C-alpha cells in the first residue's frame, strides 16, 4: 500500500478536491464534525463499564472516547514524524499533524456504534434475532449475509454506518474512514481467520458494503478475499489507543471505586512504567490516593504510547504489505503486564455486582424494546391499522417512518433502521422508554 493514497482527503460522494480551508485541514474538519455530532453527544450517557450515576470518577463512553482520541493523536504524530522522514514525497503534501489528526478523528469516533448498557447491549441485540420468536421470524425474509448481520450486532459496523448516514451529514475523508475500520470485512465471511486481528470481528453491514468498497478503492487497500481487505495502517494506532486507555483507565476507575486496592493498582501500573528517580520523587510528593493513581495512570499511558509507536515503525514495511496483522498492545514489551491488568480487571471490576446488574438490565430492556418496535415496523410495512402500533410509530424519528413506507418489501432495511433507533438510545432513555411502553412508569 502507498502512503499518499492511504492519506486521501477525498470525501466519498463529493467532487475533488476536499473542501479544506486554510485554517483547518480536511482531517481537522473530520474531528470537528464528529465532536459536534449528535451521536457523539449521546456517548455522555452511555456506560463504559460502571453504571453512570454512582461515582464522579467513573468514565462514560464520552470521556473514554476523548481520552482515546488524545492518545491516538500522540501516536499519530509520533509515527507521522518518522514516516515523513522516510518518505520525502509525502512532505510535499502532509505534515505529522495531518497523520495525528486522522488517528485522533478515527479514535474519537471509535465507540459511536456502541448501544446502551455497554458490550452487554451488543449481545442483547444479537440475542433478539437468535432467541426471540419475533426476531426469528425474519430468518427466511432476508438473505444469508443480511441474516448474519442481524444475528451478530457489531458496534464497529454500526459506527461505520453512523459515520456514513446522510442523516448526520458527516461525510468524513476516506483516510479517517479507513483508519476507523479496524475490521475491514463483512459478517458473512466463511474464510475468516481469527488468528488475524483484522478478522476477529467485522467492520461493516451489508447496507454499507458498497460504501466500504468505495473507501477501500480510494485508499488502495489490498483485498484479501471477496469479503475482506488488508487493514489501513493507521487502524493499528486507533486500536492501540483504545487498548491502552481501556486497560489502564478501567484499572484507575476500579481503584477509585474501591474494587481494587491502591497498593494492588500501584503494583500493576509499575509493571508497565519505566521509573526514573525524578518520577519516583514526584510520586512520593503527592498526598492523595486519587493524585497518585492519576499520576501512575499518566506515566503508564505515556510509556505504552512510546512502545506502540516504536513497534509500529519497526514493522511499517510488513504493515504496508499486509503481512503484520496483530494488535500492537498484544506484542509490545509490556504485554505481560497489560495481560495481568486485564486479568485483575475481569476478576474484580468487570464482574463486580453493579456491572453485572446493569448488564442484566440490558438483556431485558433491549430485546423488550426491539420486540415492540419491530412489530411496529412490520405493521407500517403491511399498512395495518392498530391503535397500539400507530402510537408506537409516533415515537420513531420521521426518517424511520419515511424509509419503511418507501421500502415496503425490504425487511432488512426496516430492521436496520429500527436497530439504529434502539442502539442509538442512551442508557437512561432506553430504560425510561422500556418502562413507559410496558406500563411500568408514566
UniProtKB/TrEMBL annotation:
**Domain HD/PDEase residues, every copy:** 57-256
Question: What domain of life does the UniProt record list for this protein's source?
Answer: Bacteria
Does Ribosomal protein count among this protein's keywords?
A: no
What single Pfam family name could you report for this chain, choosing any that match? HD_assoc
Q: Which UniProt keywords apply?
A: Hydrolase
Keyword Hydrolase set for record: yes
Q: Specify the protein name.
A: Deoxyguanosinetriphosphate triphosphohydrolase
**What organism does the record attribute this protein to?**
Chryseosolibacter indicus
Amino acid at each position: 500500500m502507498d502512503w499518499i493514497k492511504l492519506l486521501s482527503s477525498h470525501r466519498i460522494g463529493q467532487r475533488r478536491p476536499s473542501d479544506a480551508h486554510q485554517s483547518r485541514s480536511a482531517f481537522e474538519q473530520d474531528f470537528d464534525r464528529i465532536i459536534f455530532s449528535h451521536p457523539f453527544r449521546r456517548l455522555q450517557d452511555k456506560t463504559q463499564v460502571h453504571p453512570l450515576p454512582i461515582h464522579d470518577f467513573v468514565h462514560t463512553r464520552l470521556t473514554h472516547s476523548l481520552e482515546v482520541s488524545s492518545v491516538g493523536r500522540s501516536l499519530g504524530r509520533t509515527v507521522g514524524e518518522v514516516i515523513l522522514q522516510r518518505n520525502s514525497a509525502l512532505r510535499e503534501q502532509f505534515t505529522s499533524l495531518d497523520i495525528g489528526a486522522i488517528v485522533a478523528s478515527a479514535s474519537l469516533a471509535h465507540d459511536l456504534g456502541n448501544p446502551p448498557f455497554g458490550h452487554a447491549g451488543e449481545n442483547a441485540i444479537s440475542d433478539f434475532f437468535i432467541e426471540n420468536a419475533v426476531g426469528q421470524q425474519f430468518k427466511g425474509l432476508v438473505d444469508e449475509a443480511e441474516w448474519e448481520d442481524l444475528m451478530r450486532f457489531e458496534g464497529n459496523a454500526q459506527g461505520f454506518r453512523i459515520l456514513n448516514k446522510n442523516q448526520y451529514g458527516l461525510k468524513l475523508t476516506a483516510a479517517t474512514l479507513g483508519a476507523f475500520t479496524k475490521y475491514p470485512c463483512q459478517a458473512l465471511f466463511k474464510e475468516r481467520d481469527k488468528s488475524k486481528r483484522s478478522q476477529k470481528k467485522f467492520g461493516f453491514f451489508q447496507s454499507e458494503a458498497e460504501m466500504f468498497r468505495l473507501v477501500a478503492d480510494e485508499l488502495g487497500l489490498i483485498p484479501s478475499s471477496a469479503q475482506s481487505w488488508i487493514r489501513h495502517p493507521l487502524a493499528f494506532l486507533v486500536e492501540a489507543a483504545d487498548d491502552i486507555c481501556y486497560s489502564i483507565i478501567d484499572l484507575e476507575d476500579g481503584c477509585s471505586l474501591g474494587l481494587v486496592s491502591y497498593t494492588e493498582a500501584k503494583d500493576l501500573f509499575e509493571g508497565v512504567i519505566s521509573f526514573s528517580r525524578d518520577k519516583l520523587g514526584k510520586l512520593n510528593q503527592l498526598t492523595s490516593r486519587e493524585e497518585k493513581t492519576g499520576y501512575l495512570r499518566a506515566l503508564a499511558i505515556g510509556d505504552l504510547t512510546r512502545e506502540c509507536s516504536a513497534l509500529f515503525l519497526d514493522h511499517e514495511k510488513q504493515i504496508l504489505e499486509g503481512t503484520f496483522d496483530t494488535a500492537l498492545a498484544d506484542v509490545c514489551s509490556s504485554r505481560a503486564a497489560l495481560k495481568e491488568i486485564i486479568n485483575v480487571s475481569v476478576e474484580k471490576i468487570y464482574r463486580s455486582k453493579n456491572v453485572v446488574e446493569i448488564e442484566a438490565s440490558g438483556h431485558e430492556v433491549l430485546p423488550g424494546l426491539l420486540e415492540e418496535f419491530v412489530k411496529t415496523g412490520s405493521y407500517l410495512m403491511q399498512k395495518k391499522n392498530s391503535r397500539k402500533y400507530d402510537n408506537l410509530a409516533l415515537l420513531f424519528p420521521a426518517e424511520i417512518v419515511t424509509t419503511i413506507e418507501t421500502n415496503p418489501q425490504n425487511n432488512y432495511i426496516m430492521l436496520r433502521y429500527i436497530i439504529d433507533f434502539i442502539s442509538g438510545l442512551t442508557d437512561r432513555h432506553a430504560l425510561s422508554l422500556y418502562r413507559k411502553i410496558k406500563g411500568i412508569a408514566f
